[in-house]
Amino acid sequence: MCFIFADADFTLLWASVIGHRPETKLKGLVVWVTGASSGIGEELAYQLAKCGSRLILSARREHELNRVKRQCLDNSSLQDEDILVLPLDLLKRKSHEEKTKAAIQYFGHIDILINNGGRSQRSLCLETSVDVYQALMELNFLGTVSITKQVLPHMTQRGTGSIVAVSSVVGLAGAPLATGYSASKHALQGFFNSLRTELTDYPNILISTVCPGPVQSQIVHNAFTEELNKPVATAGNQEHKMPTSRCVHLMLVGIANGVKEMWIAQQPFLLFYYAWQYTPTFAWFITNVLGRKRVQNFKAGLDADSAYFTKTKTS
Q1: What DSSP designation does 242 have?
Q2: Gene3D superfamilies of this UniProt entry (predicted)?
C-alpha cells in the first residue's frame, strides 16, 4: 500500500478510522534507530519511547545518545534496560556486523530498523569537491546499505520485520545546491524499491521509504559544503519548515500501518512533488523557475529553503 500524506487532518482521520495507532501497534517492539542523537532521529526516540517501544539508539556521539536515553526514560514508562545505547559510525562498515550482533544479543531480536543517519549538502556543483560527493555516497547510501544487509538476514530468518529508510523529497526530484545529497537519496530510493520486490516471498517484511520535505532539525547546520571540513555559513530561519515532532508522528503512523512510501511535507513543497508525480513536464518548468531563485538567494546569503518565501537581497 502506498499513500501520499495530503495534510495532517486527513492523516489522523485515516489512522484513527481504518488504520493502527502507533501507540498500540508499536508497543513492545524492538526498534533500532540510527542517527538518534539529534534531529529526526532524536525525536523518533522520544515518540517511540512514549509508544512503549524498546529502543536501540545509535550514532557516533555516545554522550548525546545517553542524553537522549535519559530524556526517553524521564518521559515514558520505559526502564533503563529497555533502551540500549549502541554507538555506531556508518562509515566504519567493518564494524556493522559486530554492532548488529550486539543489538540482537541484547534484546533477542530486532523488529524495526529505522535507517535515519546521514548528512545533507549546501553547495553549488561547480564549487564542490569530488571528495564531498564521495563522502555523501559513503555515508548516506553505502552506510545505510551496510546496516540493512546485516539486519535483513535476521528478519528473513524470522519471517517478519520492518526496514525503514529515511530518504528525502529530493530523492524523488532533484534540487539545486544538493546535487550530491539528491544523488545519494535517489540511490536509496532505487535500492529499497528493488529490494522490496526481491522480498515478495516474505510478505511480513515491510520495506518503507520516508521522503520528508524541509523539517526543523539540525540537518542544515551539519550539511556538507563545497569542501569536506568547511561548515555551513548560516542555516537561516527554520520557522517555515515542518516541526520535527509533526514529521515523526506522521512517520510512525505510516510505519504502524505498513506504508511502503511516505511523502511528508508542508505546502508548497508537497504540491511541487505532486506535480512531479502527475505532470512532469509542468514540474520541469516550475523546477527551473524555483531552482533559479533558490540559487540566487543562496548566493545572497539566505537559507536555501526559506528562499522561496524571502525576497532576494539587493545591493
Answers
A1: B
A2: NAD(P)-binding Rossmann-like Domain
Q: Are the beta carbons of 235 and 303 closer than 8 angstroms? A: yes
Residue with cell 533503563: 80
The values of phi and psi at residue 230, to 5°, are -95, 120
Q: What's phi and psi for 46, nearest 5 deg?
A: -65, -45
Query: What's the Cα-to-Cα distance from 300 to each of 156, 179, 241, 293, 303, rounded to whole Å?
Result: 51, 19, 20, 10, 9
| pLDDT attached to residue 17 | 54
- The dihedral region occupied by 155, where left means phi > 0, alpha psi between -120 and 50, and beta the remainder, is alpha
Is the sign of the CA dihedral 174, 179, 185, 187 positive or negative?
Answer: positive
Residues acting as catalytic residues: 181
- What is the reported pTM? 0.92
What cell was used for 276? 512531479
| pLDDT tens-digit readout, 63-76 | 999 999 999 999 99
Model pLDDT, residue 71: 98
- Dihedral sign of CA atoms 17, 19, 25, 30 in order: negative
Q: What is the residue type of 232?
A: V
